[in-house]
Amino acid sequence: xxxxxxxASLRPFTLPFKLACFxxxxxxxxxxxxxxxxxxxxxxxxxxxxxSSPSVYANFYTSFHILATSSTSFIxxxxxxxxxxxxxxxxxxxxxxxxxxQSSHSCKPMDLSEVLEVLENLAPLPLAxxxxxxxxxxxxxxxxxxxxVLLTNDLTVPVMDxxxxxxxxxxxxxxxxxxxxxxxxxxxxxxxxxxxxxxxxGIAIYSPHTALDCVRxxxxxxxxxxxxxxxxxxxxxAASSTPLTHKLEFTVRNHEELxxxxxxxxxxxxxxxxxxxxxxxxxxxxxxxxxxxxxTAAVQTLSQHATSKESLRILQLTKLPLPGxxxxxxxxxxxxxxxxxxxxxxKSHLGLSHVRLxxxxxxxxxxxxxxxxxxxxxxxxxxxxxxxxxxxxxxMSHHEVLDAVAAGTSVILxxxxxxxxxxxxxxxxxxxxxxSDSISIKLSQRxxxxxxxx
Length: 454
Description:
Elements (H helix, E strand, L loop, with lengths): L3 H4 L16 E6 L2 E6 L9 H5 L5 H5 L2 E4 L7 E4 L33 H11 L12 E4 L9 E5 L4 H9 L4 E4 L16 H12 L2 E4 L1 H6 L4 H7 L4 E10 L5 E8 L2 H15 L3 E6 L5 E8 L3 H8 L3 H6 L1 E4 L4 E18 H12 L5 E3 L9 E11 L1 H4 L6 E6 L2 H9 L3 E4 L9 H10 L7 E4 L11
Parallel strand pairs: 1-4, 6-7, 6-19, 7-8, 16-17, 17-18
Antiparallel strand pairs: 1-2, 3-4, 5-8, 9-14, 10-12, 10-13, 11-12, 14-16, 15-18
């Protein structure tokens, strides 16, 4: 066990400087040794950029945290990873300003809003799927410091019993216990009964669900990291949550008409971003950025002028993609493995004694796996028609499995929550370095997949 003062200074950290001057550099870390050679880092590449690259982010982020102490050397603690993805030999030490390593950890109490801010920074809620129900689901009536947080994959009756017994203040349930719209709160519905119990006990309930799936370094990155290192890409790319915007392009006859139309637009819609260029003669070409919420009003204003109405073109602007974020992952493995090896690795990664396997057409247990696609939970719709040698997910329908097998893709099924639950240990580690030392973070001992293999 690490001493308490060391644990308190644990922080995920990205080095802010380049390592171009070192042909090989080595970092000592708790019980292990990590060396980065020039084959990994170049004059154009920082350690920070290497860690955050899509191919190794999940493996590195869930494997190591830089342990910042008052000394000027770097210490890494190995938290989860069973396999290192870096070369070895020579040693080298680096020094930086001690201020880079100052811990913001404290014993100061944190209220619910502060803890929720940490949770939302780890998995921004706009990343969640539109159909999902994420965020704060139950809020206590009295504001009080959060002392105990319980992490669970599913909030069930046994888990609620556990939470009440430990005087829990906040339950972080990966799956939202309240999902469908509620018209009444009654005791005969077991999920509503849990919500009523939480309110009476003063326990808040929060769910990150698909936001935690989609975020870079989240559940899906953790899941695909269990197979081995590789070049990882997102199957369904997430886009920025900024409001949808449109570009309006039109022409006006002269400067006077330009001033008049812009004044009318400002009166109708408020301040707008626009550019103008001269066209033939006295005319102007206008390009206007318009939020979706005021598009109708802007078009109505422009339609009142013949020239702008006839020349008007409306272009919908695509939202910017968020690198590394989205549903599902696909990895081109650095080294091919057999299906049998993939099965053993995923069983070890998920802590399972059994998984279900469907061999793809013409596949055997010794067939090579070069590409893997994963989706935590129920992955049938996300993995549908994805080109890969192997799918890994919690569950797929009978016919979805048949389709994959016919397409030459093997399928590993772990059962739904078994593909997600192991990430709670990662979440606990990340919360422990961001929340006050006055908060106890516990993993539920009563949470388990409802299905068992006998």
